[in-house]
Structures are given as C-alpha cells and as structure tokens.
Amino acid sequence: MSGVSQPPGWYPAQGDPPGTVRWWDGEKWVGGPQVQGAQQQAGYVAPGAGLLANGRELADPWLRIAAGFIDGILVALISLPFGGIQTFQASFEAGASDSFSFSPDISLGLAFAGALIIAVYHTAMNTFLSGGVGKLVLGLRIVKSDGTEPLGTPTGIVRSANHILDLTRVIPILGTFITLVVQGILNFVSLIFLFSDPEHRTVMDRLADTYVVKKQQ
After folding, report:
1. Do 97 and 127 touch, CB atoms closer than 8 A?
2. Which domain holds residue 197?
3. Which of residues 55, 76, 97 is at a domain's end?
4. N or C: which end of the chain has fewer CB within 10 A?
5. Is the alpha carbon torsion for 148, 73, 178, 65 positive or negative?
6. What is the pLDDT of residues 26-69, one digit of tens each?
7. Which of 140, 137, 173, 161 is closest to 209 using CA atoms?
8. What are the φ/ψ torsions at residue 137 (nearest 5 degrees)?
9. For the chain, how many structural domains are there in total?
10. In a shared domain, residues 28 and 127
11. How far apart are CA 198 and CA 194, in angstroms?
C-alpha cells in the first residue's frame, strides 16, 4: 500500500497469509497480521497509544532495560565460575607454576560450557515462560505478533538467536569478532530501535516477529 493515500484501517497486506488483515495507520503497516474479522472482536483495538492490534500494552523501554540489567547480573553469576577459572589460568601463563595451569582444551571446554549454559537459559526461558527472570519479575512478557504466549518453538529459539550466537566465542579469532563486533552492533542497533520504533521492537523482536508487553492482569 506504499505510495497510496489510504485512510487508517484494516486491510490485506501483501505477503501476509490469505484471509488476514493488518492495521494501516495512514502511512505504514503497524502490528502483525490478524485473522479477518478477529480484529472486530472484543479486546481488539487499532494499534497506537502504546497498544498492539490485539490490545496488549507495550512495555516501557526503560523497564525493558531494567529487565535486561537483572538478567545480566543473573547470567554473570551463572558464568562466574567458568570465567573465574579461565582468569585463574591466565594468571599463571607468564611462567608461574605449571601445576596450577589448565590445558588449552580444558580452558576451551570451560568457555563453551559457560556459553552453553547462558544460551540454554535464555532459550528455555523465552520459549516456555516468554521471558527471562528480569522480565518475569518486572511483569513483562515476550509475545507473538498475535499476542499469544508462551512463544514455543521455533519462535523462542529464533528470539534467543543472539545468545545462541555466543557459543561461537570458543572459535579462535572468529569467535572474538562475533562476540565483540557482531554482538556490539546488534546491541547498539537494538537500543536505537527500542526508543525510535513506535512499537519498541529490537533487532531480535523483528527477527522473531515478537513484541514485549506488560503481563495481562
């Protein structure tokens, strides 16, 4: 409908499944596709004013950041034993007693185990509980474009792809590049989207077609 002057309303959108409509705000499509006629049922409102097409209230960006901060602390505590052992190993690389050092294979295995635990945590929480501990504590949920939860698979896996990507940190050179550069870019762009996008959708939200909303009372 781009380039066409059309008043706000529900219309079929190119590329959406047959028999569905999407909200057109007069300039762009907003929200996900809805079964034609469902948007007229109780609880469905036009997207805008912090609401999705299904009536779920979007989460405040600062609240999402706070939730991420809580998860960051939890993940740090989970990975601390593995990182601590690696740091201990590095402290003896300058010629200290070899009796306290670990082989490169063991050090690599510890790094992978730490990354695996973090990836499993985020994937399982997103898939089955629609968010990590931070979101659950602050009353937020990750939902599908139609407002349903939990995400289930494969949506939960796709939504956690950035954390699964951390498993590559054990790959020499490439892992460091992905961890520092790729993840850094993802986080930076997501932060911009979080405050500039009317629906506060980050890169991972767009990739998985999800939204972060307040828990239904």
Report:
1. no
2. 61-214
3. 55
4. C
5. positive
6. 778 877 777 776 554 544 455 555 666 566 788 999 999 999 99
7. 161
8. -65, -40
9. 2
10. no
11. 8
Residues 71 and 147 reside in one and the same domain? yes
The phi, psi pair for 205, rounded to 5°, reads -65, -45
Q: Are residues 15 and 68 in the same domain?
A: no
Residue 24 pairs with which residues in a beta bridge? 9, 29
- Report the predicted TM-score, pTM, of the whole model to 2 decimal places: 0.69
Kindly state whether residues 86 and 33 are assigned to the same domain: no
Query: CA 23, CA 113: separation in Å to the nearest integer?
Result: 45
Neighbour-count burial of 168, counting CB atoms closer than 10 A to its CB (0-12 exposed, 13-18 middle, 19+ buried): middle
